[in-house]
Amino acid sequence: MMTKDQFNKYMRDRYATRLDVREYQIGRTLARYHAGHWASVQSQNQELKKEVLTHYGKNGKLQCCWDGCVVDDLDVLSLDHLADDGAEHRKHIGTRIYRWAKSHGFPPVLQTLCMNHQWKKELTRRRSSWYDSNRARKVVPHEFRET
Q1: I need a labelling partner for 29 at 20 to 30 A (CA). Which of 46, 72, 85, 101 fits?
Q2: How far apart are the C-alpha atoms of 50 and 119, rounded to whole Å?
Q3: Which tens digits make up the pLDDT trace of 92-129?
Q4: Sequence-separated contacts (24+) of 29-33 with Cβ below 8 Å
């Protein structure tokens, strides 16, 4: 029977000489760590997202702010910049907008929208800017098509 010191030396030597055993042990340890760690992180992120979207939702509820929309599914709701300056805002704060909103006391520059209404708002903005830029030249959409 080995003493604790002898066993530790045996294991160190085994680790040093057998890379397959080392990779297996490290992989097993990391897998156990990551399984618990990432589940915890995902849970915390979902709770943060729910809290922030609820704050910015219609009447303080987890719901899309668009008139007549009743979507309340956390998976299809997201934050929207009221002034359409999201790209500029991300340059300054990065992509962690939910953390930023909570840490800055929920500034009134955001709203909760479902993905359909995010896209509808973007299309309306694009059409408006296209129309404004081409109105002076009196260009109509069918003139852009290749024949």
Answers
A1: 46
A2: 21
A3: 888 889 999 999 999 999 999 999 999 999 898 888 87
A4: none
